[in-house]
Amino acid sequence: MLLANLSLTNVSANQQYQGVLERVLFSTLTTLPCCLFLCINGIMLFTLRSKALFCETSRYILLYNLLFADTVQMALSQLLYIIAACRITLTYPVCGFLTMLANLTTVVSPVTLVVMSLERYVAVCYPLRHASIITITNTGVAIIVIWAIGSLNILTRVLLLLEFPFEALDSLQMKDFCSEIAMSGGSMSDDYDKAFTCALFISASVAITCSYIGVIVAARSASTDKASARKACNTLLLHLVQLGLSLSSTICNPLLTALARVLTRIVFVRIHNVFYVCIFLFPRCLSSLIYGIRDQSIRPVLIYYLCCRLKYSYRTAILDNSFCY
Length: 325
Hints:
Elements: H1 2-47, H2 52-55, H3 58-85, H4 92-125, H5 130-133, H6 136-160, H7 187-219, H8 226-250, H9 252-262, H10 265-284, H11 286-294, H12 298-306, H13 314-320
């Protein structure tokens, strides 16, 4: 009997040790690349504020808005991941604030992609009117509208949380880890979330696709700059890819909720970690890599700051650059 108890104790200790080791391993594998991408995004944001050209051009202002939203979302998600990995439970108000802020930036990213696509459409199809339509003032108004749409979504979610049974709780301290699933307000909140997500991404997909078709049609015109139209088409295709990746990270929650009901906790955590890196973390760092490499104005300045302001030849970088926005 004693030997059996000792054997069970050893097995339990072994499982606990493996669990701790696995958590440390997964946390390291996710935190290190996230810190790297946060650093790159931070340098990219600084780059977009380092030159007057970037501060006075609408497409760079919109790019800054997109990068800012992605960076905030990635930082918040990694913070929640580390809190969960350390098995720290938060209070419902704190968790609600963090998840709502993450939801706000989730909406801002695809809507910003739509505005960026429309800007490229105007630049190619209406080149003579581009300067009068796409002004700094109009860009600022567009960014305010983008954040207003996200804020209205958050306000609606907060109102739907009123059906959450807070009065039935013994304490505001959460018993599980902070996540959007844990803060779900009920069936009405789930239905709203699905409807809003579908409406957002369908309308965004239609807008970007129509812009792409419009640019292709304009490219066949003799009066259109073929090179500019081709580059705009490539940019719009990248916007569609980014939108698809954003959609995949958004629909990840319902899939994880379904998996949580049929899988053991340890298997679910492993799958959640893989999803987090491949579906959520990776798309958030694409913007800085894509635009930092493709844009001939950003690339030399970005490399200059990435190299910690070491002596770098701008002229060589621009000559070697084979990409353009």
